[in-house]
Amino acid sequence: MSTATVNRMGGELRAICGAEHVIEDPVELQKYQVLNVVPSFAVMPGSADETAAILRLANERRLSVVPAGGFTAQHSGNAPAQIGRASCRERV
């Protein structure tokens, strides 16, 4: 994903959830890795509408989304064929 695409996507995610709920810092994103793949974003939607908007955006951009929930079992099971650039977990 190009830098311009990452910047545009980050802006769109911030518009959906608010900047405080979109993690883009590479160091911070390390804790959201799945099977050693670090996403470009981690997003914490606060509602079903925000979740739906994130999924629509990911679909439009042809990105996969890794639902993380409490992020407690991300290293079990088989690795997905492709891990997209956004991880989502609901705000608490």
Q: What is the chain-wise order of helices and strands?
A: HEHEHEE
Helix fraction by DSSP (H/I, runs of at least 4): 25-40%
Count of strand segments: 4
Number of helices: 3
Low-confidence stretches: none
| Mean pLDDT, all residues | 78
Strand order, main sheet: write it out: 1-2-4-3
**Spatial extent as radius of gyration:** 12 Å
- Give the termini distance in whole angstroms: 30 Å
Tell the overall outline: globular
The portion of residues forming beta strands comes to 5-15%
Model description:
This protein is an alpha/beta fold. A four-stranded mixed sheet has the order 1-2-4-3. The chain is 35% helix and 12% strand. Helix 1 runs antiparallel to helix 3. The longest helix is centred in the N-terminal third of the chain and has 15 residues, at 3-17. It is globular, with a radius of gyration of 12 Å. It has helices at residues 3-17, 26-29, 48-60; strands spanning 22-23, 41-43, 65-67, 86-88. The mean pLDDT is 78.
